[in-house]
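1st attempt posting a full record on here, be nice pls
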Amino acid sequence: MANNVRRRLAGLVAGGAAGVLLAGCTVNVPDPAAPKPSPSVSTLATPTITPGHDAAAVAAKDLPLAAGGTLAPGEPVTVSTRLEEVPGWSVVHSALQGETRHKKTDGCILAVRVSVNQGPLVVAGDDVASTKALFDYLNAGVAVDSLKPASLRWGEDSDKPQHSVEFLSLESSSASGGQSAVVLARLFSAPASSVYVSLACPDDKTLAPARAEIMAQLVVVPPS
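the predicted structure (as tokens):
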């Protein structure tokens, strides 16, 4: 079973020009927009307001997969992290084509990608089906029904009660002869945007503390 999961994770390499490269302990997350997205153009835009939408109320409670419809359309969920403040971690690059990457002195690599314009993969009103479609797009060999729920921190206000946002995840153990890795992803159907988090480490021993540090320092930010 662990060997099968490892092959599934390694198979992400084939899902486009880049993927999760476990053997070299480098992580590069493909942009899952399909069909090919139009080139992005930076423009100044007036923020949109969805009538009747209470962004503060959405941010003030957990966001399970079943509650994706409470988000407003159009404005993507983002990610914030200060992992470089944790001893041993440093930034490789930040906000490079939607991806931020960190590395740790023990060989662990974290990549976080936020992608927009995911409409072709969205199953309207269903974040579970949409997220499975995202995994399937990245690697058609993944048994999407075997994905497991996982959570990250939801909301940046440290002075308020902390909440969580639910993802689907895929894990690999070094016991099968490769590296240890975990991938968490969610395609938010309402804003048609996705968050993809990939952590690869030399072995299970290094993965466990790295994962704990990421859980503490990585925050999924609700649309304002």
